[in-house]
């Protein structure tokens, strides 16, 4: 028994493990412990089995790969008789695995180059020990090679009904895939999904509305239309909109002319307005409106929302929606905390996304079984 045996065990029966996870959920659902009336969604970053120093550019990866291929060719040299067959087999396997990881690293760095061309001297880098790991922000504010673990928890008893490991550091595009995973596994749709501001995008709101799923989320600054201003700067709400002339009017009565628009996903359009430079430079309120602007007039963004977005905003302004939203933290964030603290899964013990997913699935299965045992225990009188 060694680390390799344990790693092989974690990932050897992924299909069977996935089926076992589904069967446990079916049993929990039969006992009424899962209802899917309300599902909480959240993601957390778990460190990959890779160091920051293992990241290399494409040229360096090619050099390491050529060296690894040469070592593989030299395996089985009859002059190496002083090594036992068991040791020789272990070395052969290690060299082949290293070559496979380097080939995967070369594939990943080329894929990154196609998705987003490198700018200036900042060439794309990937880890040669875990090529699919990505730098992600940790809870302490630092960056580390990690995976983004997505968990969906039924609010009835906090049972985990969905889990996935992604390479995306952002949660913004993870809500619909989470919904589809639940529907596919349990053959039933959640009636309501609750997620934090990382998931609350115009696209997510529209996707849930199209599937007739009640979605509760946190409208962040980017969706509220308040705009981003410097400290003590006159806020955008101080500028009044005139729909007849399509202009904004500042507190001093000067007009800001339209400078174009920008789509911010379905349901939201940002219109940009700018004042004349001469109006701002001679204005007495310039120090509080745009103190750092010396050449151009004040610029303001106005958000135009669809009926769907305005309805969502009105819903989230209600006390009932806020009460339900506040439940999210103690349900789904508890799942992540339990897995990290009780099982110690703060860093994966295996490499590659598919293997990390298997380890995350083992952890979620363990959590569900522990919850099941707890819920079946008789309550003391």
Characterise the protein shown here.
By secondary structure, this protein is of the alpha+beta class. The protein folds into 3 domains: 3-49 and 134-221 and 312-376, 2-Layer Sandwich (Nucleotidyltransferase, domain 5), CATH 3.30.420.10; 55-127; 227-306, no CATH class. The chain is built from 12 helices and 13 strands. The protein has helices at 3-12, 14-30, 58-73, 85-115, 175-186, 202-210, 221-224, 277-281, 286-289, 307-316, 319-342, 353-376; strands at 39-47, 55-56, 126-127, 134-137, 143-154, 160-166, 192-194, 214-216, 240-242, 247-249, 255-263, 268-275, 299-305. The strands form 3 sheets. Strands 1, 4, 5, 6, 7 and 8 form a 6-stranded mixed beta sheet that branches. The chain is flat, with a radius of gyration of 27 Å. The chain starts with a helix and ends in a 5-residue tail after the last helix. Residues 222-228 have low confidence and may be disordered.
Q: How many domain regions?
A: 3
Quantity of strands, as a count: 13
- Roughly what fraction of the amino acids lie in strands? 15-25%
Following the backbone from N to C, one meets helices and strands in this order, namely HHEEHHEEEEHEHEHEEEEHHEHHH
Topology-level CATH name of the largest domain? Nucleotidyltransferase, domain 5
CATH architecture level-2 label of the largest domain = 2-Layer Sandwich
Strand pairing plus helix content: what structural class? Answer: alpha+beta
Oligomer: single chain
Count of DSSP-assigned helices: 12
Overall 3D geometry? flat
Q: pLDDT below 50 for ≥5 consecutive residues: which ranges?
A: 222-228
Question: What portion of residues is helical?
Answer: 40-55%
């Amino acid at each position: 028994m060694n680390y390799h045996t344990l790693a092989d065990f974690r990932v050897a029966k992924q299909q069977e493990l996935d089926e076992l996870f589904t069967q446990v959920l079916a049993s929990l659902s039969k006992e009424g412990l899962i209802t899917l009336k309300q599902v909480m969604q959240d993601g957390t970053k778990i460190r990959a089995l890779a160091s920051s120093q293992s990241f290399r550019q494409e040229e360096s990866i090619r050099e390491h790969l050529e060296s690894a291929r040469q070592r593989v060719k030299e395996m089985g040299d009859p002059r190496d008789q002083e090594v036992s067959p068991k040791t020789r087999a272990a070395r052969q396997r290690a060299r082949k695995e290293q070559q496979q990881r380097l080939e995967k690293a070369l594939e990943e760095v080329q894929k990154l180059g196609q998705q987003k061309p490198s700018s200036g001297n900042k060439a794309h880098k990937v880890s040669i020990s875990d090529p699919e790991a990505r730098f992600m922000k940790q809870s302490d504010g630092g960056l580390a090679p990690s995976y983004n673990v997505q968990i969906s928890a039924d609010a009835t008893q906090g049972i985990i009904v969905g889990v996935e490991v992604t390479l995306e550091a952002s949660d913004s595009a993870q809500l619909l895939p989470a919904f589809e995973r639940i529907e596919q596994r349990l053959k039933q749709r959640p009636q309501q999904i609750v997620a934090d501001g990382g998931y609350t995008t115009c696209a997510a709101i529209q996707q849930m509305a199209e599937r007739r799923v009640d979605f509760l989320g946190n409208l962040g600054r980017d969706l509220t239309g308040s705009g981003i201003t410097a400290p003590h700067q006159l806020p955008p709400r101080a500028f009044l909109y005139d729909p007849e002339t399509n202009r904004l009017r500042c507190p001093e009565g000067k007009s800001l002319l339209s400078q174009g628009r920008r789509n911010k996903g379905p349901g939201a359009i940002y219109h940009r307005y700018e004042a004349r430079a001469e109006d701002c430079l001679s204005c007495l309120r310039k120090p509080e409106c745009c103190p750092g602007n010396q050449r151009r007039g004040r610029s303001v963004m106005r958000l135009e929302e669809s009926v769907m977005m305005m309805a969502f905003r009105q819903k989230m302004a209600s006390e009932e929606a806020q009460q339900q939203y506040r439940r999210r933290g103690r349900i789904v964030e508890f799942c992540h905390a339990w897995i990290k603290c009780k099982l110690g899964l703060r860093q994966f013990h295996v490499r590659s996304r598919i293997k990390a997913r298997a380890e995350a699935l083992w952890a979620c299965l363990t959590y569900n079984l522990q919850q099941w045992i707890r819920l079946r225990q008789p309550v003391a009188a």
